[in-house]
Structure formats: structure tokens, C-alpha cells
Design brief:
The structure is a single chain. By secondary structure, the protein is mainly alpha-helical. It folds into 4 domains: about 170 residues, no CATH class; about 160 residues, Up-down Bundle (de novo design (two linked rop proteins)); about 260 residues, Alpha-Beta Barrel (TIM Barrel); about 240 residues, no CATH class. The protein is built from 39 helices and 11 strands. It is globular. About 50% of the residues are buried.
């Protein structure tokens, strides 16, 4: 069913009206809280600052900006703190109202389009495959090998506390239940006036609680705090959201391919880095990893014990009324032998209810599994005091067997509908989460491996100068050690430096966890900064020494090179090809099912070379790696190490997936979910379902050549050339312009962000001030705060201008000829934008960041640089590139402005700009005071206010790092 233009206009207007009502309701509630908590003068101050900001935006004259800055400069720390807090809470509430309205609109779209599916739904993707004549058998084979894994990472870009998120969710629930604020007979729904008043009171109660709570963290979180924060989503959100995704997929397959008997495996699962990612984080120790695994398992067990309550209620079938399958009878007899005391009680309470007796046995096994998990400490090379087989669950398949025996028994005895209800959901829950919620990846930097191996080989007398060997010699030595039976590392006494011992113990801890706690929880070891074949073989050697790999017998870890730099991305295919030609590595891969994981780093590649060059290097690397995998007959599984911001590979997940090279998304795909992306995309079960629905839709569409769009050769040649120009422009500014580091360190709040307590990981690798050693997260975060947003677009404008004007010389002296050539070049870029998802996503991402840029405010941050001549010169470079990029991206996209003035993004930014601008000016004033007096009676209060302003601006721009 299609909507008429009139209906669409009416729906859009109604949506805007309802959103405005909700925003007004929340803003009025917040105003009452401010007046109550700080007094009417504080509310008047907040309203005055907002009025001045509105006037400045309506008439952007220097006089208005000076007046606002001068007014802010006269305020006390206490007044500034109140302004920051009120704006920060406003943004959080506004974001919540927008999220609630988006979900309501999606529901409306489902109704309006019915029976046709919504365009980004799973049903739409499956229907599109049917339209393109993808056979059912082909799709079934794709499903059988597909693996879609969002990975929650420990990167510190979540500026909101878990406490804040929980309170916001309560407000969201009340707001969604309330519906329209303006009540009349037609729209009052089921709520009486008193009931609606109760909902408003609940909202205001939570706002008061938010106001009286710490918005920023007082104590820097530890690694296990990060794990616990991540587990919130596995407790409160994902157990409801993921089963819905599977039901959507199963329904879509039946509707589009009714002739096929579908089998839907657990293709969508979750991963986690928290507690396993060691790269640059000295606080992730073997003990922390063990505790992380415990927390993961206990979370799933506790969740499933609740699921068993539903099963117990549902499975009340009596043996007096219906029979059971012989397999279930045998299973019950075995359980009676394992649990005689429990069996005696069940014989009295449940003599005729075999399914409930089976649930009771499952519950007892889970309790014992939880007890064992919480009390046993894995010890490498030691026999564990494992509970007796049959009395607990070591592998998730054992629990699935106990559930499936009930399922088959129900189906064999007229209970198919019952089997398809709570029991089917329970089986799917374990298929997806196993007994550990998410697979835990281990990550460490290549330099740590090399340093440790150098020391180990020297002590063993194998090689005294391993670090000095060239690549060919390293490969030869590593292959030799991998084929030898004798151990390189002593079993007991480790006479090495603490750093080397930590590397050894990490691998041994992984082995012990897999043998004694959970054989499935850890599957991949990621090598940060991988740049050679020897980096990969080194990890295989450590795995062999820990008993994780035994040639021709077993290999228990996927070895995953993470290619990040431009040079490494260019050589990624060559490195993989050489590895696959080595018999010892091919043996390892065969034992891993001939699946090779490779991770691509978006953040550091962007920091090194800028947006366009990094995007193209990643695109090209995927093509190279896919070609090598096809040549060697293996399956390639790519992990996309994306961040939240565009400058770190961020953006809407479905568009990013569709922008990948055709043929590289074969169903095996992983992607990191970081920081504020997690809290935004997995805020509640409905939001998580929406996000994962889009991901599965995109992977399905991108996974088949019949649907994906292949670029024309002229398009790839064009981007290849522009990438070189953009890279040179970017690197000239960042790495070759004298004084740029000084500008960055002074014109952004990088120093203050480094003190923000939003993660356990240090901001830099080591104590260096070099840009190369700074992590990508604070790099992007700092530029976004100061409204430069430089990592999300710098260099693109120069590249576009170069391509459009490069052939002017061929036109001779005729202006008309030059104009024609430029028009043809622009039209080619416009065609690429319209027809090539990669290029469209690139331009759209840059425009999204440009819409958050404000060069007027950025100039104010530039004034913080002591050397005014230097500040003016570098600011001028940045502003000129901004203006160039703004103009040319609009030309390429065919827009007069960066974004459609009627779009949600434009409305959202217009709504919140009068609040963001004052926060930037407040932050500037506080940074001046803090830097002018690094110590003093007000230092702690000023620093606290600066940190709060960072949170506020991040919430206002809906972006951190």
C-alpha cells in the first residue's frame, strides 16, 4: 500500500507535532526541576543564555557572539556548572524524545506499507532476493555458513554512566506509553487523565533523580566495571531483541519461499572485547580475563534460569493425558540416577509431569554449573576437579540436547504448537548465547609479541638477536620452531621479564579457560598493528607452546591479523597469500575449518591518512583479501573495526555494510560496536531490534551478486586518484605543518579529555606527545568538541577540486572549453554518488560531520593557542578546506545545503544548536581559567565543570569519538 503525497505530508506533520509535544513536555519538566533545585534565578539565567544564543544564530554577527562570550565570562563557577548541567540533561532528554518518535514512525510505516514490508526490514531483503531469482537452495547454503557478529568493545567513548542510562530508559518507557500530550476524546486512548498525570509525575521524578546524581564518573572505571556495564545489555536488552530477529527471518523466508523447508541456524551472535582487549591497556590481566568469563557465564545462566520459569509454566503436559518419546524417558531415567534426592521430591510433586521434571533437572544442572563457574580457578597444565559428567553443563550442546529431547517428544505427541512457543524460544536463546553470552576476543599488539619472543629465544639459546632479524629470517626460524616437538618455553619456571611472562600467561590462561570453564567462549586472538607474515606465525607459535595448537591434531584459536596502516592495508592480500602457502599455517587453518578471519582497522588508518584515503585503502584491501581467499579455496571472515564517529569508520551500520565492495560480504562479517553507539543502538529491546534488523537486511542484500552494485572501472580509477590527493593534503597539515601539534594541544580539549573518567584505557600509547602515538578515540573526540570535526572530512574537498579542475590545461585558453571539462568531471562524480553505495556513503558521512562543524566557534578555540600567528595560519588552512569541502560535496550530492532542510538531522541540529553553542563558549571560558591557574582553591571545581561540559557537548552533537 503506497501513501499519497497528501497522506505523506500529513504523516510527517503529525510526527513533527508529536515530537515537538514530547520535547516541550520534557523541557517544561526540566525547567520546573531547575527552578526547584537551584531557584528561579538559575532558570532565568538559563533562559537568558538560550535567548542570546537564538539571537546569535538568527543574526550571526560578531557583536552577538562577543556579547554572549562576555556575559558568560562574568559568571561564577557555580552558575556555569548549573548551565552545563541543565543543557546536558536537555540533550539527553531531547535525544530520548527523538528515539521514541523514530520507533513510533517505524511502527506507523509498517502499518502503512502492509502487506508489503518496510524497505530496511529483513522481510524486504528476503523478498528482494526472491525478485532477483536467488534460488532457495543457494540462500539456504548461505544461511548455513553465515555469521553476523556485532562486537561490544571496551573503547572509552561512552560519556554517559549506566546509572544515567537506566533512568533515561524509565523516562522513555513512560513517554512511549503516554502518546500525544494534548489529550482529547479521540486520542486519549486507554489512559484516564489521572493515569496520564501519573506518567508525567514518573517522568519528572526521574529528571529530579538525574539532576541530583553525578552525570560524570567520579571514579575512573576499571576493566571489570566496563564488563559489568556491557553485561547490562545482555541482561536487559538482547534476550528480548535477538529472538525477535530470528522470528522475523524465519517468517520472511516462509513468506517469500513457501516451497522450501527452512533451517535457520544461529547466524547472528554477539562478541565482546571487554576483559580481553590488552592492546595498550595494562589493566587487562589473565586474572581479569578469567573473571570476565565467569561474569559472562553467570549472566547467561541467570537469564536462562528465568526462562526455565516460563518453560515450567508452559510444559504442564501430563503422562495421564499424552505419551512421551522414548528418548525423553531415557533422559529422565539418567537424570534420576544423577540426582537421587531431587528425584525423590519430584516423584512426590510431579509424578505425572515429565516435562516439568526435565525442567527441574535442567535447573539443578545449571545451578551446579554456576557454582562451579564461580568457584573454580582455571590452572594451566593441571587436571581440574571437574564435576561428574551429566550433573553440570560444560558445553552448550549438552544443554541443547536436554532441551531438544523435550522438543522432539512434544512434536511426536501432538504438541507441535507448544514446542514452537516458549520451548523454541529457549532453544534459540542457548543457540545464540551458548553458555557465555558472547565470544570473548583476545587482542594484543604485535610489538609485545616480538619483544617477548626475542627474550624467550635468547634465554633458550635459539637466537640472541631475534629483533634484529629481517622478515625472511624470522619466517624461517618461526616455521622451524613450529615443527619441533620440544618446548621452547619451560613448563614451570619462567625466568623472563614481567612483560614477557604476561604474554605467556595470557595464552596459558586461554588454554585453561577453554579446557576447564567453557570450550567455546574464546575463539579469536587479534594481532594489532599486524604488518608481516612473521607477526601471524609468532602468535601461532605462542599458541603451540600453550597447548592451543598441535600440528595435524587440533587448533583452538583463530589467528586474526588486524591491518590498520596504509602500507599494511596495501599489503594485506600479499601477507595472507604467503601465509596460506606455508604448509604449517595451512595445517592450522584446516583445523579451524578453513575459515580465515582478518580485521580491518578504521580508526588508525583514518588518523594516519584522512577520511577518503583511509576509506579507499580499506575498500581495496577487502578486494585483495577476497581474491586471495578465493584462490586458496578458503572462507574469508572480515571484522570491521569501526568506531562511533565518521572519523573512526562510524555511521549507520546498514549503509556502511552496503558500501563494502561487491563479493566481500559473503555472510561472514563482524563489526565492532563502540561507546555511545552501544547505548544508542541497544538502548532498549525495540531500539536493538531496529538496529539489528537493519544489519541483517544489509548483510543479506550485500551477500548476493544479483543484488549488489558493482562500480564501473572509471569510478574506481577516479577514487584511486583522488585518494592520493586527499592523503597528501591531510598529511601535509597533520604531520608536516610546523606547529600543528601545538595547535592541536591548545585549540582542543585533548588535555582535559585525557582526564575524563570514561574508560580504563590510557589516552596514548606511552608518554609521547606525538600524534602517531595518540589513540584515535581522543583524537576524534577532541576535534569534535572544538567543532573543527577535522577527521571526518579534511582533504576531501581538495581531492574533489583537483579532479574537477585537473584537465583545465587541456582546454587551452578557452574558458568555455575548461568549463565544459569541469562540468563533465562534476557529472561523473554526481553519477558515482547516485549509483555507487561506497561513494554515496563517503559523501554523506562527510556532510554529516560538516553539519556539526562551526568554524566560528572553532576560531574561538584557536584563540587558546599562545602563538597567535601560528594559530591564525593553521586555522586558515582548516577553514579554507572546510569551505572547499562544503561547497563541493553539495555540488556532488546535488544539494544547495549540506542536508535536506526537512530532514530529521537538520531539524535535530536546529533544535539543539542554541544549547550547544553556549556550552562551547562555557567550555572555552572554563579552559581559559583552568589553564591560567593550574592550581588554586577553585581548580577542582573548574576541572569538574570542564569535564561536565565535555559530556554535554558530546550529548548535544550526538557524537564522542
Amino acid at each position: 500500500m503506497e501513501l499519497s503525497q497528501t497522506e505523506m505530508t500529513r504523516a510527517t506533520a503529525a510526527s513533527g507535532d508529536l515530537l515537538s509535544e514530547h520535547v516541550r513536555l520534557l523541557r517544561d519538566a526540566l525547567s520546573r526541576v531547575i527552578a526547584d533545585q537551584l531557584g528561579p534565578d538559575a532558570l532565568e539565567l538559563e533562559e537568558r543564555v538560550r535567548r542570546m544564543s537564538h539571537e546569535m544564530r538568527a543574526d550571526p554577527s560578531p557583536d552577538h557572539a562577543r556579547a554572549l562570550r562576555a556575559f558568560i565570562a562574568e559568571l561564577s563557577i557555580e552558575q556555569l556548572h548549573g548551565l552545563i548541567k541543565s543543557s546536558t540533561l536537555y540533550f539527553s532528554l531531547d535525544n530520548l524524545a527523538e528515539r521514541t518518535e523514530r520507533l513510533r514512525l517505524l511502527r506507523d510505516q509498517d502499518w502503512r506499507s502492509y502487506p508489503a514490508p518496510r524497505g530496511d526490514s529483513i522481510a524486504a531483503a528476503v523478498a528482494e532476493l526472491r525478485v532477483h531469482n536467488v534460488p532457495a537452495a543457494t540462500l539456504q547454503r548461505w544461511l548455513d555458513q553465515a555469521q553476523i557478529v556485532p562486537i561490544f568493545t571496551a573503547h572509552p567513548t561512552e560519556s554517559q554512566r549506566r546509572t544515567t542510562l537506566a533512568k533515561l530508559r524509565r523516562i522513555s518507557d513512560a513517554l512511549a506509553a503516554m502518546g500525544p500530550v494534548t489529550v482529547n476524546v479521540e486520542n486519549s486512548g486507554v489512559w484516564l487523565p489521572a493515569e496520564r498525570a501519573d506518567l508525567q509525575t514518573q517522568i519528572e521524578e526521574q529528571i529530579v533523580s538525574l539532576w541530583q546524581s553525578d552525570i560524570v564518573r567520579v571514579v575512573k572505571p576499571g576493566v571489570l566495571d566496563e564488563v559489568n556495564n556491557g553485561l547490562y545489555y545482555f541482561q536487559e536488552v538482547l534476550p528480548e531483541a535477538l529472538p525477535r530477529i530470528y522470528r522475523d527471518l524465519e517468517r520472511a523466508l516462509r513468506e517469500s519461499y513457501p516451497e522450501h523447508a527452512w533451517r535457520v541456524p544461529a547466524l547472528l551472535r554477539m562478541g565482546i572485547w571487554m576483559g580481553g582487549d590488552r592492546d595498550g591497556n595494562p589493566f587487562v590481566t589473565p586474572e581479569v580475563t578469567i573473571e570476565t568469563v565467569r561474569m559472562l557465564r553467570v549472566t547467561v545462566i541467570n537469564n536462562f534460569l528465568e526462562t526455565l520459569d516460563d518453560l515450567h509454566l508452559a510444559l504442564s503436559q501430563s503422562s495421564q493425558q499424552v505419551g512421551i518419546a522414548p528418548e525423553l524417558a531415557v533422559c529422565l531415567e539418567q537424570n534420576m540416577e544423577h540426582f537421587p534426592e531431587l528425584s525423590a521430591g519430584l516423584a512426590e510433586r510431579r509424578p505425572r509431569e515429565p516435562y516439568r521434571r526435565q525442567c527441574a533437572y535442567i535447573r539443578e544442572k545449571l545451578r551446579r554449573t554456576r557454582d562451579y563457574t564461580q568457584t573454580h580457578t582455571p590452572q594451566w597444565s593441571q587436571d581440574a576437579p571437574m564435576p561428574r559428567p551429566g550433573t553440570f553443563y560444560y558445553h552448550s550442546s549438552e544443554l541443547l540436547d536436554d532441551l531438544r529431547v523435550m522438543e522432539s517428544s512434544l512434536r511426536a505427541n501432538g504438541g507441535g504448537l507448544v514446542a514452537d512457543g516458549a520451548l523454541r524460544n529457549a532453544i534459540r536463546e542457548i543457540e545464540v548465547f551458548h553458555l557465555h553470552a558472547a565470544t570473548l576476543d583476545i587482542r594484543q599488539h604485535r610489538r609485545r609479541h616480538i619483544s617477548a619472543l626475542h627474550e624467550i629465544m635468547a634465554v633458550a639459546g635459539v637466537c640472541s638477536n631475534y629483533c634484529d632479524l629481517d622478515e625472511l629470517a624470522c619466517r624461517s626460524l618461526l616455521v622451524q620452531e613450529l615443527t619441533l616437538l620440544r618446548p621452547l618455553i619451560p613448563l614451570r619456571l619462567l625466568v623472563y621479564s614481567p612483560e614477557t611472562v604476561e604474554i605467556i600467561q595470557t595464552f596459558r590462561t586461554v588454554a585453561a579457560i577453554l579446557e576447564q570453564l567453557d570450550p567455546e567462549v574464546i575463539q579469536s586472538y587479534i594481532i594489532s598493528g599486524a604488518s608481516s607474515v612473521s607477526d601471524i606465525l609468532t602468535v601461532l607459535l605462542f599458541a603451540k607452546e600453550a597447548g592451543l595448537y598441535q600440528p595435524e591434531r587440533y587448533s583452538r584459536l583463530n589467528i586474526v591479523p588486524l591491518f590498520e596502516s596504509d602500507d599494511d592495508l596495501k599489503r594485506a592480500g600479499e601477507i595472507l597469500d604467503f601465509c596460506l602457502k606455508l604448509p604449517i599455517y595451512r595445517d592450522h587453518l584446516r583445523l579451524r575449518g578453513d575459515v580465515q578471519e582478518v580485521m580491518l582497522g578504521y580508526s588508525d588508518s583514518n588518523k594516519e591518512n584522512g577520511l577518503l584515503s583511509a576509506k579507499w585503502a580499506l575498500y581495496r584491501a577487502q578486494l585483495d583479501l577476497t581474491a586471495v581467499a578465493e584462490e586458496h579455496g578458503i572462507t574469508l571472515s572480515l571484522t570491521h573495526g569501526r568506531g562511533g564517529a565518521v572519523g573512526r569508520g562510524g555511521g549507520p551500520a546498514n549503509r556502511v555494510i552496503m558500501a563494502q565492495p561487491p563479493g566481500t560480504v559473503s555472510g561472514q562479517i563482524k563489526m565492532t560496536e563502540q561507546g555511545e553507539v552501544i547505548s544508542e543502538s541497544y538502548f532498549d529491546p525495540t531500539t536493538a531490534h531496529r538496529h539489528l534488523e537493519q544489519v541483517v537486511n544489509a548483510v543479506l542484500r550485500a551477500g548476493f551478486p544479483e543484488v549488489s552494485v558493482a562500480p564501473e572501472p572509471a569510478w574506481t580509477t577516479t577514487v584511486e586518484q583522488m585518494a592520493d590527493v586527499a592523503r597528501e593534503c591531510y598529511r601535509t597539515l597533520i604531520f608536516e605543518t610546523p606547529g600543528f601539534v601545538t595547535y592541536f594541544r591548545n585549540a582542543t580539549p585533548i588535555a582535559e579529555i585525557s582526564r575524563l573518567r570514561i574508560g580504563s584505557r590510557p589516552a596514548s600509547r606511552g608518554n609521547s606527545n606525538r600524534i602517531e602515538d595518540l589513540r584515535a578515540i581522543p583524537w576524534v573526540f577532541s576535534w569534535n568538541q572544538s567543532r573543527h570535526t577535522l577527521p571526518g572530512w579534511y582533504g576531501l574537498g581538495t581531492a574533489l577540486e583537483w579532479f574537477i579542475t585537473r584537465d583545465d590545461a587541456e582546454a587551452g585558453n578557452g574558458a568555455e572549453g575548461a568549463s565544459g571539462i569541469q562540468q563533465a568531471a562534476l557529472e561523473l562524480l554526481q553519477t558515482m554518488y547516485q549509483r555507487w553505495p561506497f561513494f554515496r556513503t563517503l559523501i554523506d558521512s562527510a556532510q554529516m560531520m560538516l553539519s556539526r562543524t562551526d568554524m566560528g566557534i572553532a576560531r574561538c578555540y584557536a584563540e587558546l593557542v599562545p602563538d597567535k600567528t601560528l594559530a591564525e595560519a593553521i586555522y586558515r588552512y582548516i577553514r579554507e578546506e572546510y569551505e572547499r569541502t562544503y561547497r563541493l560535496t553539495c555540488d556532488v550530492a546535488g544539494f544547495c545545503e549540506l542536508v535536506d532542510p526537512t530532514s530529521e538531522l537538520q531539524r535535530s541540529m536546529a533544535q539543539r544548536t542554541p544549547y550547544v553553542d553556549p556550552l562551547n563558549y562555557i567550555q572555552l571560558e572554563l579552559m581559559r581559567r583552568l589553564r591560567a591557574a593550574p592550581s588554586g582553591p577553585e581548580h577542582a571545581d573548574i576541572e569538574a565543570a570542564v569535564l561536565l561540559s565535555i559530556n554535554g557537548i558530546a550529548a548535544g552533537l550526538k557524537n564522542t569519538g
